[in-house]
Each structure stands twice: as structure tokens, then as C-alpha cells.
Input
Amino acid sequence: MKKILLLGASGSIGRQTIDILQSRREDFSLLGFSVGNQDNLIVSLITSFPEVQSIFLLNKRRIPELSKQFPHINFFSGEDGIKRLIESLQVDLMINALVGFIGLEPTILALQQGIDVATANKEALVVGGKLINEIIASGKVHLYPIDSEHVAISKALKGNEQTAQRLILTASGGPFLHLSRTEMTKVTVQEALHHPSWKMGKKITIDSATLMNKGFEIIEAHYLFNFPVDKIDVLFHPESKIHSLVYFADGSYLADIGPSDMRIPIGYALYGGQRKVGLPHNDLTLDSFPTFHFEPLDDEKFPLVSIAKEAIRIGGSLPCVLNAANEVAVYAFLEEQIPFLGIEEVIKWALDNAKVIGEPSLEELIAVDKMTRTLVTNYIKGKY
Amino acid sequence: MKKILLLGASGSIGRQTIDILQSRREDFSLLGFSVGNQDNLIVSLITSFPEVQSIFLLNKRRIPELSKQFPHINFFSGEDGIKRLIESLQVDLMINALVGFIGLEPTILALQQGIDVATANKEALVVGGKLINEIIASGKVHLYPIDSEHVAISKALKGNEQTAQRLILTASGGPFLHLSRTEMTKVTVQEALHHPSWKMGKKITIDSATLMNKGFEIIEAHYLFNFPVDKIDVLFHPESKIHSLVYFADGSYLADIGPSDMRIPIGYALYGGQRKVGLPHNDLTLDSFPTFHFEPLDDEKFPLVSIAKEAIRIGGSLPCVLNAANEVAVYAFLEEQIPFLGIEEVIKWALDNAKVIGEPSLEELIAVDKMTRTLVTNYIKGKY
Output
């Protein structure tokens, strides 16, 4: 019985994780979770998982009422609430399905406490990959990716690490794959939120449209698999059935193929990197294999991929600046404060104006994140 | 330094094997080989591989002349010539690139002598898979497939055997994938020899057009990977870039992808199931990934696949009858004695009229093969 803490229970990954936990009550107990917006989820989760001991709520208004109804449960909220949630529990695995920089501290905290982490939070690795890998190097804890791309690479690399030469992350290309740069200047929020193959949260859907998401995944792959970014490529594959590939010394590739169903990679991570029979998932049957299209990445059309690679080459605090600028810019775009290509422009501005700290500590990263957000917010106010 | 015996040096697989051996003189020595038709190859091979000790020639006329020129080399020919070739050498690996039933005895003989075998000869496993697996069960010798499909499955299965549920052999579909049965009645030998994606010998090219080849590969996969034939599927993929797939318990597939270049699977087999850097091969670059098409197998249009499965379900000497009838029918088609769909008709007739021996010995298989050839030849003479 694996004891689980789930951060981000109300998001897309969180709900699909719960789907699997519910189907495998014999393998997992859910000791705690955090919820952001949809706190109506709380009561149904407590009912489904009566073993729950601790809950974090973003919205603290409901805590008095819930504490009365469930006196045996600890409720947390506020700035250090997630930290206290983690410290209140003895779990085997924390699933980090938070979105954004706020995912960094919990990942580091959990790993430091000897808790394995399965992460759908990209930003933690983008910003703090070096710090995270230093903890993992101890050999006492594991970090499992949940992204379909990184699970695909894990599967293809397994047992074949010695002869792997390149990692190839597939990318649907998002809704604007075939637009010109000129056409991209005019796209609306609604158009950008219309992802062709995956149903995801808003932040990651915009990151997919700008290809920032793929840049982040390159950085994640770099840290997860110890591959230099120059050996990590992107291949457009609009059908999202090949989830990624590894290229080997003999000129062949291994590719992970499957339906566009995040429950498969989530299940793989929940079981510590093992395929399990009987978990809920959609089927890609031989009758339903669609035609697979491919296109090489066009760096001029989607410059954020090479910008992400460059940020890692320079390293230090620069990936933190990249992430903070992107977060601010994406939410500014979602609120129609800046145009679609403004996201890219804002990120470039932030990177051009950043001072790089060589080996930042967690505290320094938090400070860089905060400062970048202020600078970028002011820049947007001034320019747009 | 691995000591090699190559059977079928002048065929398509044989020549590509030599290509690799020549590029890796530091890893392999070629102690012997057999040649069929193109015996002008002999002198150039002896020059390239001065370590050669024994040679089999189909055509014995040249032996006196060659013996004079190369007195240190043993030359063999005639009915037991291949047997004597094998017995004359101490090698680590025999590459069986013979075509047809004649590949069976050498494979069994080599394995019995403790020599590992890499086989491109399908017919040995189709006819004698059970006998071969009994020798391999000793754990002292290995059989490595050379077929791109089976190498693909080996790569995808490696380390993942526990959760593999189905094997999926891809098939280009050959030149007649989109013809109707009526159109197939009229196809010519030249049309049948025009394979869309692979350049191969004549026998296997016709087997690809009838899909008998895929039926044989199902039988091979059944013996190589200990999978029941009901868990082995066929998927049409005309571009021949996905070389086969394995379907796993979690709803995902692993696929081996690469250029249509047999030197890659040959290299994998030569190194005992390992990917090697720097062997000669074509490249499938990210820029050159074509669009991948897929179609499910149409059993009514290509009945030989299910006929092959049925032959294995019944077992015993029936797969031997299937193979012998096919060999005779294919050569009769190549000589324009029967029409294209006559191949299928002749095979069905042979299977319908066969008496099944339950657990045939090698000698019994040789007798069944001989008798089937006579019966089928007479049947063709009488009917066509």
C-alpha cells in the first residue's frame, strides 16, 4: 500500500490521478491533498478516501466549516500551508500537479524529507533542476516524470541508456503550427486555448501554443536524463500518438506510442516507472491508428525553444528568469493585456535585462522569481 | 574477435552482412561461407578476408581451379557439403542467409554443435521451430533473428517481457495492397517483383506480395518470443519505417523506427542483440520522417496470414507442408506456370490433403518436405 500526497487535486492532472487512485484502492491510500480553485471537490474526496489526514486549501474561508464537519482532518492554508501539509504527513510518494513556480519548493522539501516525487510540474525542474538533481544524487529518493513526453523517453531509455544518442520530444505544434508569424500577431485568447490534441489547463495550453512548453520539456529532459540540451530535439507530430522517441547508436529509434490519455503516464509514475495492467485508459487499437504526420521544428517561427536551450547553456538563475517572465506574460495574455507574440517579446526583454547568479540557492531563486515578476509586470504596464 | 560462418554470401542479406564485416575487421573474422549463384564473388571475398578456411559452392565445376589457386582453403559442394562446411570450422556465430527449407538442417546442426545462429532464413523456424527451441532450451546457444520485424520486437521487448501483451508485425503490404481480389488474378511476375519499400531476393519478394511472408513471420515470432499466434497481429504500414511494435499492459506501444536498411538489424544480430555505434547504415533524419500510414489487415483479401496461424495451431508437420507447398508454388509462379492467386490455391490444396504427423523428427520433416514438393508439383502440372 503506497501512501500518497497529491498537490493540485483540482487540476487536470490531479483529477486524472484521482481517477487512477480510485480504481486501485488496494494499492494506494491518499493521506493528503491540496486544492486550488474547485474546493467543492473536497467533500467528495474525503468521502472517497476516508483515510485522508491533511488538506491544503487555497481559499481559507471554508476551513472553519470543514474543520467542524471533519474534525479528524488537519486543514492548512496560507503562504507556508503546503510546507506544513507536507510536514504533517508520512507518505511514500508526493504527486506534484501544481502549475508554475509554486511547484518548486514543495518538490525540494519532499525530496529532502526522503519522499519520492512524481511531477507534472515542469517549472520546478526548469527553475531548480540543478538543486533537485543534487538531492537525487544521494540515491535515497526518486523523481518520476508525469509528462507524456518524459514518460515516453523513460520507457524507451530503460535498459538502453548506454547506446542512446539523442532524445526527440514530439510536439503537437499547438493550434498555430501552420500560421505565419504575421498571422500569429492577430490570434485571440480563445484560439490559443483551443489545443488540437490534448485537453489541459490554461497555462500549459498557452505554453503549448507558444512552444515555450516544449522548451521547458527540453530543460526537464536535460535534468531527468542527464542529456545535454544540444542532444535533445523537437519533432512536430500533430496527432500526438508518438509521445517521444530516443535515437540510438545504430541509426534506429524507439518510440512510445499510445492514445492521448494522460492516465497512462500518470499510472506509470504512480507505480514508480512500471507498466500496470488494468488501469483505466483509452485504447489506441490497430484499427484506430491515424495517419502520423511529422515536421521538423522551425526555429524562426517558434524561437522560444532555442531561447530555452540558450537559457540552460548559460544556466544559473537565468532559467528562473525565463520561467517567471513566461508566467507573468502568459497570464497577461490570458487577460488580454498583451498580444500572443507579446509573450515571446516580454521573455526576450526579461532575459536581455537579467543579471545572472551562478549557483543560486533556493532562497536566491525565490528572490529572482519575485524580482522578475515585478520587473516584467512593470514592463508590460509601460509598453502595452 | 568473433569467428563467423556465413551461409548465403551471394544473396541480398549475405552481401549486406559482408558490408558490415568489412567495416569491422577488428571485431569479426570470416572463417567460412557458402555461395550459390554468383561464384565470381569467391575470389574477392578471399582477398578481403584472408582468414577464410572453408567455402561451399553450389556449382562444383570451379572447385579444381579454385583449389589450385587457394590450396590452403577447403572447398565443399554437393548434398552434404554445407554439413561438412559447418563441421570443418570452429566458429562462434553462423549467419544463416539461405533461402528456403534448405536453411533448416544447417541451423539445427550448428545449434547442436554449440554455435550461436543469426538467422534470416525464415523457413527453418517455420518448419522446425519446435525442434530448434528444444535445443535452445538447453541455455547453451542463442538464436538471433535478422528480420527487421523480429529485431524490432527484440528491441521493444528487452527488459519489458513481463508486461508485453501483444506483438504487432508491420507489413508494407507489398505491391498489391490496394488491388481487389479480381485485379490480383491478373498481376504479372514483374509486377509482383516490384516491392515498394525493400530490395530483397525474388522468393521473399513474392512472399511479401502474397503476405505469406507475414504469415511466416508470425510463426517465427511465435517461436522466437514464446507468444501464442493469437497474440500476434499484423498492421499494414506501407512506408516500412516502423519495423514492428509491442503492445503493453498499460495501453501503450513501443515501436522500433528506422530507415529501410537491413544492415541495422543484421548489425544487431551480429553483435548478439546489441546496438553498435559506427556501423554502416542509411539515416532516417528528423527532416526525412515521411508521413506514416496504417491499415488493419484484411484477412479476406490476404488469407495466407490466417492460414499460417491455423497451420501452427494444428502444428506437427503441417507448417512443413505449408512451407514446401509455398516454395514450389512461388517458383512455379516465377516461371509463369501458375497465376498469382494460384500460389494461395496450391497451398490450400496441399494443406487440405496433408496427413499430419504430431511430433516430427528432422528426418520426418525432410521426408514430408520432399513428398509435399512431389505432390504439389504434380498437382500444378495436372491443374495449370
